[in-house]
Design a protein that fits this description.
The protein is α+β, with helices and mostly antiparallel strands. It has helices spanning 2-21, 101-107, 109-132, 137-162, and strands at residues 33-39, 42-54, 56-64, 69-73, 75-76, 81-82, 88-89, 94-99, 165-167, 172-176, 185-186, 191-208, 220-224, 233-240, 250-258, 269-286, 291-293, 296-303, 306-317, 321-326, 333-337, 348-350. The strands form four sheets. Strands 2, 3, 7, 10, 12, 13, 14, 15, 16, 17, 18, 19 and 20 form a 13-stranded antiparallel beta sheet that branches. Strands 9-8-4-11 form a four-stranded antiparallel beta sheet, with no helix packed on it. The protein has a three-stranded mixed beta sheet with strand order 21-1-22, with no helix packed on it. The protein is elongated and about 120 Å long.
Length: 351
Amino acid sequence: MYNNRIIAYCILSLFFMVACNNQPQTTQSDIETPVSVRELKPGSISSFFNTSGTAQATFSVDLNSEMSGLYQLQMNPRTGRPFKLGDAVSKDQLIIRFEDKEYENSIRIESRQLSLEIADQEQVKQKELYEKGGVTLTQLRNSEVSATNARYELENANISLQKMNVVAPFDGVIVSLPHYSSDVKVSQGQPMVGIMDYSRLYMEINLPESAIAYIQVNQPVNITHYTLPYDTLKAVISEISPAISSETRTFRGKVLIDNTALKLRPGMFVKADVIIDSADDVIIIPKDVIQTARNSKYVYIVERNMAVMRTIITGIEDDDNVQVLDGLYENDNLIIRGYETLRQNSRVRVL
């Protein structure tokens, strides 16, 4: 009885062992690693020297009253209202006028115009007489002097009269406009209006000594500001100092910024990326997918649901991306997520 139990136990154990050996075994090569891929297309990339600075208006002026008089703020023909802060003005546009009848009368514009007409007529008459021998050369020259003096006197009178007007010296925008009540007398030398033209801005920059071999006049620059996260303004290097500072080991330059759309404001602190190299129609990949081994760089692509290692040679870099000179091609499916644990010919599942 006891022997029969032993025999039965052995037979049962042998059955379970055979059953277990018949179960399918999962191997490492059968595991599919989930990955994300990017199909490679040609693009553009640039490498930069980064710096920053304050954008300034290329033209700026603060105008004061040159004469005293009753204050008259003029109407803006664009808005139909008196000029105010932020209004655009054109060159020679009248912004403020002073009225002072006593002063205007003292200039005697009309009488000076008549004096010039009389002097011109006398000069013509003397010239005709001189050609006929009726007057001497001295008399002719005296008539010319009289006409010239009358012309200068009229011009000076007009200049004096223009001092009663405050006009824009260039196209720009009103950035300051102190308040004065209309028809109240304002004395000479008071601040009247500030005007800036910031359709083009400039900024002074400092660049590291190591960049001096790569920087030249008219080199392109990209300008960005945190308030304009999706806008990049175009600029160029306009001036470069040949001297290196012994204290900071930097050299100075000046950048001109195209601000035609007036997106930047004078005084903004902006970032400047000086383009030192660029390439178009090239393969570009993220830096963080590149792995290294034995001084070689490699990435993984997907072919037939398998991870295939590609050794690559890189070129131009920016903050996030790098140009691939060799090893990758257009339409390759580059693995950009899930690559960390892959090996050559690892099975993958594209998410």
